[in-house]
Amino acid sequence: MEKALLVTCGIEKEDSWEVEDASSELRALTLSTTAQVLEEVLCRRHEPAPSTFIGKGKAEEIGELCRGRDADLVIFGNDLTATQQRNLEELWSIKVIDRTQLILDIFAQRARSTEGKYQVELAQLLYLLPRLSGKGIMLSRLGGGIGTRGPGEQKLEMDRRRIRKRITKLEGELEALRRRRSTVRKKRLDLPLSTVAIIGYTNAGKSSLFNRLTDSQETVEDRLFSTLDPVARKCVLPNNQRVIFLDTVGFLHNLPHHLIESFQATLEEVTEADLLLHLLDVSHPRVREQNDAVCQVLKDLKIERKPVISCLNKVDLLSSVSERGKARLQKEFQSAMLLSVKTGEGIDKLLDQLTGTLQNLLTRIGVLLPHNKMGYIELIYSQGVVTKREDRQEGVYLEAELPTKVVAMLRGVTYSLRT
Ligand SMILES: Nc1nc2c(ncn2[C@@H]2O[C@H](COP(=O)(O)OP(=O)(O)OP(=O)(O)O)[C@@H](O)[C@H]2O)c(=O)[nH]1
Ligand SMILES: [Mg+2]
Asked: C-alpha angle with apex 135: 131 to 139, nearest 5 degrees?
């Protein structure tokens, strides 16, 4: 097990997060890998020092600490330039990893699907490429961040030309996979079921809720980024409407932008959902900052206007908070619902709210189906809520609330459609 020293530097001009919060998140990220945390060093600067980020004096101080504590590597809570990373490695004669590389390490460990694996490898190579310039960091040092992960021994021997070739190949493969996936998704969309994406900060309890709602067995762990590949599953709501739930990758504050781009395919799923279920871990001391971080990602994805139901999860851990305190919290977070996936508290209410919101997304129609189109009756019953039925001579007349997608399908096949 590698022993890591954590360094987080607060930059006054850049970040709204307190350096303490950033550091405790770095600790949680590190503990999600196989590394062990020796000590956390916090510092503050007005702006990063170009050659060492933290400044010469601080760098020497940390060098001493590394030797004294026999550290195997230093992990930064900030992003370093290739030069800063190289300088620090030379100064300390020790492996230095920045926040992006740490996150990539975790992603590499978690990726399951072919697409997920390709995405991570692509992001890793794009990260490595500028770091191979000039004298470069010793390739063996780049042997992934922690443990033996990272692009792998053999791949690290590749020179830049071969890395570029590999990048082009991966981009091609990913594009092909994306096209295939979009066909699959289109088929799913043709099936006109409403889609609900469970989103939220990493470790909020998304997979736990997904499992509970869909009776599944997705990985649930007290670690950051347990879920990497999105999973979709069907579920029947209490009013018999069928919907698709999506479990998604967790969000993180200051997720490096190029990472977001390489995970765009994953986030496409979220972008196309009809409704978002935003889960917050109310027991987390930084729940407000986490909420802001998620809202920021939604803005980046340009989907901040999508209908959202917010839930304050893990309410079972709030036993010391008064009812009034809880009500205040609910109000503060977009009239959120109180929920505990663990005890089941609030699940029924959530399902009611979900049904209601989805129904608001439904269109009320009256439709007369001719006798040769009876196949659609079953579709209407399974996708919507039928409020009236009359068997007439010309066909069957139904009044129902239906997802807009189904309404569009019906337009071509009926004598009369009233919306
Ligand atoms: N006390 C308590 N713990 C919960 C509750 N819901 C989830 N957890 C725990 O929170 C941790 C994270 O749960 P996950 O479902 O893996 O969270 P996630 O949002 O899918 O996390 P990532 O996939 O890593 O982003 C696990 O240890 C769960 O057992 C809850 O209502 N109460
Ligand atoms: Mg998960």
From this structure: 60
- Packing angle, helices 114-128 and 99-110, rounded to 10: 160
Domains and CATH numbers, the chain: 3-103 (3.40.50.11060), 112-173 (no CATH), 193-359 (3.40.50.300), 362-418 (3.30.70)
Ligand 1, atom 7, lies closest to the CA of 205
CA–CA separation, 210 and 214 (whole Å): 6
Any idea what DSSP says for residue 53? B
CA 300 to chain centre: 13
Ligand 1 is surrounded, with C-beta below 6 A, by: 200, 202-208, 220-222, 224-227, 250, 313-314, 316-317, 340-342
How confident is the model over 192-245, as pLDDT tens digits? 678 899 999 989 999 999 999 998 887 787 777 777 767 888 888 888 888 889
For residue range 134-172, what is the model confidence (pLDDT) as tens digits?
444 444 444 455 554 445 444 445 577 788 898 999 999
Ligand 1 atom closest to the Cα of residue 223 is: 24
Name the 3-class secondary structure at 416.
Answer: strand
Q: Is 364 exposed, middle or buried (0-12, 13-18, 19+ CB in 10 A)?
A: middle
For the whole model, what pTM was predicted?
0.77
Q: In sequence order, which residues have a C-beta less than 8 Å from that of residue 47 and are 6 or more positions away?
A: 11, 12, 13
